[in-house]
Design goal:
The complex is a heterohexamer of chains A (about 110), B (about 120), C (about 500), D (about 160), E (about 900) and F (about 90). Chain C has about 500 residues and is mainly α. Chain C contains 20 helices and two strands. The radius of gyration of chain F is 15 Å and the shape is flat. Chains in contact: A-D, A-E, A-F, B-C, B-E, B-F, C-E, D-E, E-F. Bound molecules: sodium ion (2 copies). Chain E: It is found in: Cell membrane; Membrane.
Chain lengths: ~110, ~120, ~500, ~160, ~900, ~90
């Protein structure tokens, strides 16, 4: 049982770390800002989330159960999309060529 | 570790001093910010370095420097950070006002005479 | 009475807070509170001075912790002198400002009280880091006093002042950091004891830290090569503020005196008397340059600024001589130059406003209203500043000259005497330009503002204090001499601070 | 009730957050948490124009599970794309027409879109009727729109009517 | 009585000075009271003086410096005091009529009395320092008197020059006095005068002598300092008569007489004093011949007579001293009367130019006769007083022993000077009173008012009386004075008109004949009116002063070029110098107890290093530099976490957020990029300096970090929980051990906010970039941020409450409160926030500070020092025992100040509006 | 085993941060850099949590919460500056 849980913790840890690494790799590698934007938003959710989940599990196994890491997750889930949204807005406004047309049925610039 | 931190502090100082000697108010502010990082790290490190020994007392541990890092420099740095922030704020506002009044962000209030490099 | 040493810090703080809390549109309330606090500070400082005259050092353990654990305040003669000089200067400055400037500068009175809090704290604290904190309190208040209501060139010189001082403060932190890292203490007495016990082989880093400290203090006190910021800043500051700043350079001098007699003084083992060899030549050189600046100054306020600079330089000469006698003379001169330097700025402002177009320019000609009164005041101030008898400047300069030992007299006397002469020339030519020459069209009636009672009263008061200082030159010099002797024997201070015991029985 | 408890959901959140922070269920802390749950939203009220009135907790719960699952999927998907050849990506912008009008709903939708497969919400049109979404890889725009609207917007409209 | 004598002129000067300009007569009466009353007092004291006892008085002033108000009236002082008061009385009378209605009588007389007091003080001073004090006072009051006609350029210049020269002398005197004090151990004249041999034997003697002589020579207008005196003639004539003939210029020779017992008797003294005296004698009398201005002639004549007196004191024999004192008196009488006569002529004709005067014997016969008699006395004609002292001088010149060269030189000089004296006296008389009448004068001259002549008459009568019957008139005075200098050694001498047909008499005759021949010869040879003598001394002085001012200006401008860059560079260089000096001699052995680097530290280190360097590299692109610097801040925070300082890390993170927001707000009003720098050299120079600074700091940091360490902190750690009541030691230090620091710190923070408030309250500034269109409401972020706010409040409260035991505390909590509110500002806009939040932030700051202050004061009530904390466990129903430290109340103060302060700063920065008029930048 | 996993995970996050630094310095646009800084701080959270796990210490927690809750403020402020110039309108 403990062994299994330990393996689970490890899996969570490693997959979280893996996702975060890939996301940052994407940030470094991809060609334009909008492509790059996709990685980090995921990293902050699953990457960090995995680690946090692992941490909670592990602490429970140690006999000091703590749900405080949930808070971090909560805050990250609330804030990460906002960050991404504003960076996207910044990218749109700093480079007009990236901007798509207005929504269908509307004229002029949004 | 001590060497690495020293080098980092030194780099911050070098960067800060270089920027401090620039002619534009904002550059100087950046320089002073870097210098304040440096000085904070320095004061902190003057209590010597310790990993994993926060100065937070634990009933299990003897309250001595063997188990805790030196709290005094930490308290000093806290004060220093706050004061540096206050100073930076005033300096920023002054720089902005000076630029607005003299139409130049040169710290001497006027653009330098054109020189051929 | 037991709390006396902390009151000069808390009283202005309290005054400032009351002003902040009683946010009234009526400036009269702020004026009343400010002046009340100023008067109270004079009384407190005087009481402290009387107390300190028994030769003891009164130690106040803030928070009831032993001095090496917490923060200790210590009041000896030197502190009392500085407090007294500050409060005697501040009250007239404040009164002067009630002539109208305090309406134009937002938060003037609050900032003024904070400035006093910082100054008094710096003079009283016995803790190196706490000194930094009070430095910052007074500096940030001084930024406010310079910048509040400022425009144009004043903002620019304010920017330079702020940037310069932040740099100096950062350097101070470096120095204190190193000192702590080497000695493991912050209380000056504790540091002094530890420095004295330091093996000579490990002196180099300690000496470097002391060197940094010295640079900071000298930058604040405006010593060559770091005084260049001062004249412009002071000349551009509002009169009441510039006058108060006459004590700011003295603060630098004070800190040099305190730290380098206590920590790196005669009893500091391998590092004994570290600073003096630097200070003497630099002080003399600064004095010469400041005097030349005064000679060339195109405006009265700039002239006054150079005179303040010169007075600080003179003090460094006294420090550099490092004898009880010279220190005594220097401290007397310090009080004198603080009061008279302040008066000079106030006077310059009055003169500036009584000349319609030319302001305080020494190049342009103009008519001046109230020439008689201002002329007499200028005369008194000039005599005092130039060190001419019978005013306080003479007593100070004379006692300083008398304290120069034979070996140095050969070059120091010519320097001091010749710069005195140049100051006389500069002041005589400024006075004759301002008061004897007239030119241009007289200002139309109503164009020149009337002299206001607070402004004239404050100026006269400050000059009167200078006169009193000379009349009571005997007791005053006795006091400063005693202070000088106290400084040259720092062990009593060290023992008093280290030996101060907390009251028993408060902690749970 | 409304005056003293303007946002029950928020109050509950505060209550939970406090207990999580102190990591304790002692009566003192529970009491304090309750007090804060009452007080803090009232304080925050000063800065809020409208409050979120969430309904249908069942739908909300189901949506949360769906989203969490989609997050896992999306991560794998995005990781695959990132590690793959960049030239094979077909990124695109799509304006998603919105039926939902509640500000909180829109915000939640935008957040969900950002956290789920290969999409990042990038801009809300000024009239709040369209949401600009960037796709890392888009094959069929209409299908994607329909997917988003049915999978996320529909339940959200129930939660935030 | 002596003190009263001294105080009278000063008191009256003040009273007279306070009179309005219209009260001319009252001023004169009041002013006359000083010399008249003084003379009465002096008369009362005369018996004591004559008896040789003298009068003394002592009031301590600055005893520590040996500087007391010690007064001493001996024979010499008595004679001078009489001179000062006597002539002073006549001058006041004269001035009463001399001054025109345009001049302020009270002001003039007030200055005059001030001078009189200074002069009196100098002569009766019983303490050398006091003497120097009054010495300087005479310089200052004479400055005021010379410049009295302030509208005249030459008056102002003359006054300044006189002050500079005599003031310099005064400073030298101060030096000399201190040296004498060092030699003798006292400044009291009684002691100093009794220590002559000791002084002469001292190695300091030459310095002391030269310094004192500098004072003497400047004040008494001796070569080469003589040039200021003629220019002082720009003063009103009563001033010239009083100061520049009778009294002030005599101060120098008075000092010679005064210190004669102490300083005289060396070869150095002899050569210096008599040599300079002789040169002055010749130079002065020669130049006097070529003056066109009456007063100019008299001034040069005065110079030469002063030279004569100086020469006599230089000779140092008792008889020479007597002769010197005698000539002082004689010169005072005839020269003062001549000046007054010149003043009358000026007054009546409107000119003093001898080229335009002439024939006045017809027009002003009475005045002319008085003046002619006085001139003859000046020329040394027998039966007048000038003759007597001149005879004595000739005798003494011939008596010089042991210095052959000096004897002949001085004898020849004496005869020559005598001849020159005759010549200029002749010119004075001839050109003014004889020959063709006055030309081109504005008014018709009349004899002056009765009372204006009286002073002249009295003085001329004195000249005659002394000249005819010296033994009856002047002998007792002279003897008394001589005793004051020489003590019991006063030699036997006879004051009679006829000593027989001896060498001195022949010399007198030769001089007389030569002088007459010279005057008429010169008139034949050259056009005396065409010669214009320009003072070289003045040119040199003016050139020097102008040059000094110019150089000073150049140097100052060069040093203080208004460049902050230079000022900062100086600080950096000074710090480098003083920081590096100690290591030059020490061998740098690092103890080297370095700890191994944890793997994570490498990351932090690398991140910090790279980001720091990048910040510098990119610094000109400001926004970019700011973003990169964010990574530096993150690295620093991480370093703190890693190295066991969680509180620091938190604070650093939060401050970083607020700082970046502030910087961005500011950046909108600054150029987005730094302008390129003109000089590449400077960049390299700065880089080198920066590297040196960084290297120095790093080396020193490493050296200290690896050193063994003994800190007070171990005790703090041990006592934190039991006595400070908290287990987060950093926080306990902040609110308890070093709570006073924190009080100052939040004061700084609060003041900073107030300063920002004061500077921006009404500021209008043009932003660098203004986005088009209405602000984007940013609906989605806004919704989230508002949802986050109560949660952040909860976190903030949590960090606050547990700060005493775990990381957190008032400051951190305050920022955790401020940052989400800041976010609201960003997302909702300033107006929205002000409507809804609208706190009076300055007052909140006040409340916070007041709380902190009050917590400290609370401990007074229990009899403990300020800020003594009181920790207790309060049992609260249901909640159990809660720790309640008074320090926590203090922390609430911190919390409020930090929260309100940061919001005030941000809010003010945000609320700046563009100018009413003005387009884009 | 857990310790090894934690170490590996920390290594991965550290590497991720290095990559973030690369993007931060490389740019090219301002949004890229803002994004890189944001990602850097998110990865820092994970690193802090892992460090806490590794040393069984709770002192890293507060820093992690604060970054999670308020770290995005920097991102928002910078982005707003890029979008509007004036960050508080
Ligand atoms: Na305490
Ligand atoms: Na704005």
């Amino acid at each position: 049982m403990n062994q299994a849980l330990e393996i689970l913790v490890c899996v969570l840890l490693l997959s979280g770390a893996g996702f975060a690494l890939v996301a940052s790799w994407g940030l470094a590698k991809l060609g334009d800002i909008f492509k790059r934007l996709h990685g980090p938003t995921k990293a902050s959710t699953l990457g960090v989330g995995g680690v946090l989940l692992a941490a909670m599990l592990w602490q429970a196994m140690q006999g000091v159960p703590s749900l405080r890491e949930l808070l971090i997750t909560l805050f990250l889930f609330m804030t990460a999309p906002v960050s991404a949204y504003l960076v996207a807005r910044a990218a749109l406004s700093s480079d007009a060529s990236l901007r798509p047309g207005p929504p269908p049925g509307q004229d002029g610039d949004a | 570790m001590e060497l690495a931190l020293s080098v980092f502090i030194g780099t911050l100082v070098a960067a800060g001093v270089y920027l401090l000697l620039r002619a534009r108010s904002f550059d100087i502010i950046l320089g002073l910010t870097l210098l304040s990082y440096a000085v904070n790290l320095l004061i902190f490190s003057m209590g010597r370095l310790a990993v994993g020994k926060p100065p937070i007392l634990d009933k299990a541990l003897d309250p001595s420097l063997a188990n805790h890092s030196d709290p005094l420099p930490q308290a000093l740095v806290l004060t220093a950070i706050v004061i540096a922030f206050a100073m930076t704020a005033v300096l920023l506002v002054t720089a902005v006002r000076s630029r607005s009044d003299s139409r130049s962000d040169h710290v001497d209030g006027h653009e330098p005479p054109e020189e051929t490099p | 009475m037991a709390h006396l040493p902390i009151l000069p810090i808390l009283l202005p703080l309290l005054a400032a807070l009351v002003m902040l809390l009683v946010r009234t549109r009526r400036v009269a309330v702020h004026r009343f509170i400010g002046l009340l606090s100023g008067a109270g500070l004079v009384a407190l400082a005087a009481t402290l001075a009387v107390q300190a005259d028994d030769g003891g050092t009164r130690v106040y353990l803030v928070g009831n912790w032993a001095s090496h654990l917490g923060i200790a305040l210590a009041a000896d003669r030197l502190s009392a002198i500085m407090l007294l000089a500050t409060s005697l200067l501040a009250l007239p400055c404040l009164w002067f400002a009630t002539g109208g400037w305090d309406r134009r500068a937002p938060h003037f009175h609050v900032l003024f009280q904070f400035q006093l809090m910082g100054l008094n704290g710096a003079f009283l604290t016995a803790d190196l880091f706490n000194l930094f904190v009070f430095f910052e309190v007074l500096l940030i208040a001084s930024y406010g006093l310079i910048l509040s209501g400022a425009r144009g060139a004043r903002v620019r010189s304010g920017l330079q002042y702020v940037a310069f001082n932040i740099t100096a403060s950062t350097l101070y932190l470096f120095a204190v950091g190193y000192l702590y890292g080497i000695t493991g203490a912050l209380n000056m007495a504790e540091v002094a004891a530890r420095v004295a016990a330091m093996p000579a082989a490990e002196a180099a880093p300690l000496q470097a830290a002391a060197g940094l400290l010295l640079v900071v203090f000298c930058a604040k006190a405006a010593l060559l090569p770091m005084y260049f910021w001062l004249p412009e800043t002071y000349a551009r500051s509002p009169a009441a503020v510039a006058a108060l700043f006459a004590v700011m350079t003295k603060l630098g001098v004070y800190t040099v005196l305190r730290v380098f007699t206590l920590v790196f003084g005669a009893e500091a083992g391998a590092l004994a008397n570290l600073a003096w060899p630097w200070l003497l030549p630099l002080g003399a050189a600064t004095l010469v340059l400041a005097t030349l600046g005064a000679l060339a100054a195109p405006s009265l306020r700039l002239l006054a600024a150079y005179l303040v600079l010169g007075s600080a330089a003179t003090l460094f000469i006294a420090l550099g001589l490092a004898s009880a006698e010279a220190l005594g003379a220097g401290l007397y001169y310090l009080v004198h130059s603080t009061l008279v330097g302040g008066a000079m700025f106030l006077l310059a402002d009055l003169i500036r406003r009584q000349r319609d177009n030319a302001g305080d320019s020494l190049r342009k000609l103009d008519h001046m209203k109230n020439r008689g009164l201002l002329g007499v005041l200028f005369m008194v101030a000039a005599l005092s500043v130039a060190g001419l008898p019978p005013l306080s400047g003479f007593v100070g300069k004379f006692s300083l000259l008398a304290a120069v030992p034979g070996a140095q007299a050969a070059w120091l006397w010519p320097v001091i005497l010749f710069t005195s002469l140049l100051v006389i020339v500069a002041l005589a030519s400024a006075g004759s330009q301002l008061f004897w020459r007239e030119g241009g069209e007289p200002a139309p009636p109503g164009a020149v503002p009337r002299l206001r009672t607070p402004e004239v009263g404050a100026t006269i008061g400050l000059l009167g204090l200078g006169v009193l200082l000379s009349v009571f030159g005997g007791p005053a010099l006795d006091y400063t001499q005693a202070a000088g002797e106290q400084l040259m024997a720092p062990s009593a201070y060290i023992e008093a601070v280290r030996g101060a015991l907390p009251l028993p029985g408060v902690s749970p | 009730m409304k005056r003293w408890l303007p946002a029950p959901l928020l109050s509950v959140t505060v209550f939970v957050v406090w207990l999580l922070l102190v990591a304790s269920l002692e009566p003192a802390h529970v009491l304090l948490a309750a007090v804060l749950a009452l007080v803090l939203p009232l304080v925050a009220q000063r800065l809020r124009e409208d409050t979120a009135h969430a309904r249908r907790p069942g739908v909300a719960a189901r949506l949360i599970v769906v989203v969490l699952w989609d997050i896992v999927l999306s991560n794998i998907e995005v990781a695959r794309r990132i590690l793959g050849r960049e030239s094979r990506m077909r990124p695109a912008f799509v304006w998603i027409p919105l039926d939902i009008t509640n500000r909180h709903g829109i915000s939640a939708l935008a957040g969900i879109i950002t956290m789920t497969p290969g999409t990042v919400s990038s801009e809300l049109s000024p009239d709040q009727r369209h949401l600009l979404v960037h796709f890392l890889h888009l094959e069929d725009a209409d299908a994607a729109i329909a997917h988003i609207k049915s999978r996320y917007e529909a339940p959200l409209r129930e939660v935030f009517p | 009585m002596l003190a009263t004598l001294l105080a009278t002129p000063f008191v009256l000067a003040l009273l007279v000075g306070l009179l309005p300009d219209s009260r001319r007569r009252a001023a004169a009466w009041l002013a006359a009271l000083a010399p008249v009353g003084g003379l009465v007092l002096l008369a009362l004291m005369t018996p004591d003086v004559m008896s040789g006892a003298g009068v003394r008085s002592l009031v301590p002033w600055v005893p520590a410096m040996g500087l007391d108000l010690s007064l001493r009236l001996d024979g010499l002082a008595w004679m001078f005091a009489g001179l000062v008061l006597g002539i002073g009385a006549l001058i006041v009378l004269y001035a009463r009529y001399y001054l025109s209605a345009a001049d302020s009588m009270p002001r003039f007389l007030s200055f005059l009395l001030l001078f009189m007091g200074a002069m009196l003080g100098m002569v009766v001073a019983g303490n050398l320092v006091l003497l120097a004090v009054f010495w300087e006072l005479t310089s200052i009051s004479s400055f005021l008197l010379i410049g009295f006609w302030k509208h005249r350029q030459e008056a102002r210049d003359g006054a300044r020059m006189a002050l500079a020269i005599t003031g310099a002398g005064g400073l030298a005197l101060l030096g000399g006095v201190i040296l004498l004090g060092r030699i003798t151990g006292s400044y009291e004249l009684d002691v100093v005068l009794a220590s002559g041999p000791q002084i002469l034997a001292s190695p300091l003697y030459p310095y002391a002598l030269v310094l004192v002589l500098l004072a003497v020579f400047t004040k008494s207008a001796q070569f080469p300092f003589q040039f200021w005196l003629p220019h002082a003639m720009a003063a009103p004539t009563p001033v010239s008569a009083y100061l520049h003939s009778a009294t002030m210029v005599k101060a120098g020779v008075f000092l010679l007489a005064r210190l004669h017992p102490a300083l005289a008797g060396s070869d150095l003294f002899f050569y210096l004093v008599s040599g300079i005296g002789a040169i002055t004698l010749l130079v002065g009398s020669w130049h006097a011949i070529f003056q066109h201005d009456l007063k100019g002639l008299l001034a040069y004549s005065t110079i030469s007579h002063l030279g004569l007196i100086t020469l006599l004191f230089g000779l140092s024999t008792p008889m020479a001293v007597v002769a010197g004192l005698f000539h002082i008196l004689n010169h005072a009488t005839f020269k003062a009367s001549l000046f007054m006569a010149a003043g009358i002529i000026d007054h009546e004709t409107g000119t003093r130019d001898m080229r335009r005067l002439g024939g006045l014997l017809r027009i002003l016969p009475y005045t002319a006769i008085l003046a002619i008699i006085a001139s003859l006395a000046m020329a040394g004609v027998p039966l007048l007083n000038g003759f007597l002292s001149k005879e004595m001088f000739f005798t003494e010149a011939l008596e010089i022993r042991g210095h052959m060269f000096m004897r002949w030189g001085i004898t020849v000089a004496a005869v020559l000077a005598g001849a020159f004296g005759v010549a200029y006296s002749l010119r004075f008389v001839h050109d003014t009173f004889f020959g063709p009448g006055p030309v081109r004068i504005e008014r018709t001259p009349h004899e002056p008012p009765r009372f204006m002549r009286i002073p002249v008459e009295i003085l001329v009568i004195l000249c005659l009386a002394v000249g005819v019957a010296p033994a009856l008139t002047i002998a007792p005075v002279l003897r008394t004075a001589a005793e004051g200098v020489l003590g019991a050694d006063v030699p036997y001498y006879s004051l009679s008109i006829w000593h027989g047909f001896n060498t001195p008499f022949i010399m007198s005759l030769v001089g007389l004949a030569l002088g007459i021949a010279l005057y008429f010869g010169i008139r034949k040879l050259i056009d005396l009116y065409g010669v214009s003598y320009d003072s070289r001394g003045r040119r040199v002085y003016e050139w020097k002063v102008a040059e000094a001012v110019r150089l000073a200006g150049k140097l100052t401008d060069r040093l203080e070029n208004g460049s902050l860059q230079r000022y900062l560079l100086m600080v950096v260089l000074s710090a480098l110098a003083l920081g590096l000096v100690p290591f030059l001699s020490a061998d740098l052995a690092f103890p080297g107890r370095s700890q191994p680097m944890p793997p994570l530290a490498w990351l932090v280190w690398g991140m910090g290093m790279v980001a720091t360097l990048a910040t510098v590299w990119l610094h000109r692109r400001r926004l970019l530099a700011l973003v990169v610097m964010g990574a530096v801040g993150l690295a620093v925070s991480l370093a703190f976490v890693l190295l066991s300082a969680p509180d620091l890390a938190l604070t650093q993170l939060l401050v970083e957020m607020v700082t970046i927001a502030l910087m961005l707000l500011a950046l909108n009003y600054l150029p987005p990029e730094s302008a390129p720098e003109p000089s590449r050299l400077r960049k390299w120079r700065d880089a080198v300096i920066a590297l040196a600074a960084g290297g120095g700091v790093a080396a020193m940091a490493y050296a200290v970090m690896t050193r063994p360490f003994d800190t007070v902190a171990s005790e703090i750690l041990a006592r934190s929980l039991p006595e400070g009541g908290g287990s987060n030691v950093v926080n306990v230090i902040l609110v308890d051990f070093r709570g006073f620091d924190t009080l100052g710190e939040i004061a700084v923070f609060g003041i900073a906010a107030l300063v920002v408030h004061a500077m921006l309250r009404r500021a209008r500034m043009l932003p660098e970039r203004r986005a088009d269109g209405p602000p984007d409401p940013l609906v989605i972020p806004n919704t989230v941020a508002r949802l986050l706010l109560p949660l952040a409040l909860a976190v903030s409260l949590y960090l606050f409450l547990r700060g005493h035991n775990l990381p957190g505390g008032g400051f951190i909590a305050g920022l955790v409160l401020a940052v989400p509110v800041l976010l609201q500002y960003v997302l909702s806009g300033n107006e929205y926030m002000e409507q809804r939040l609208g706190f009076d932030y300055p007052r909140v700051i006040g409340v916070g500070l007041a709380l902190a202050l009050a917590t400290g004061v609370g401990s007074w009530l229990l009899g403990y020092p300020y800020m003594t904390s009181h920790t207790d466990y309060v049992a609260v129903p249901l909640l159990g025992k809660l720790p309640m430290a008074s320090a926590m109340v203090f922390d609430i103060g911190v919390y409020l100040v930090v929260g309100a302060g940061s919001l005030l700063m941000l809010g003010m920065m945000a609320a700046v509006r563009p100018p009413l008029h003005g387009g884009a930048r | 085993m857990i310790q090894t996993c934690i170490d590996i995970a920390m290594g991965a996050f550290a590497l991720a941060m290095v990559l973030n630094m690369f993007r931060l310095l490389r740019g090219s646009g301002m949004p890229d850099r803002i994004l890189a800084l944001d990602t850097l701080s998110v990865n820092t959270i994970a690193l802090l949590v892992l460090a806490g796990l590794r040393e069984s210490s709770t002192i890293y927690f507060e820093a992690a919460v604060v970054i999670a809750m308020l770290g995005f403020v920097t991102t928002i402020v910078l982005s707003k500056y890029v979008i509007r110039g004036d960050i508080v309108e």
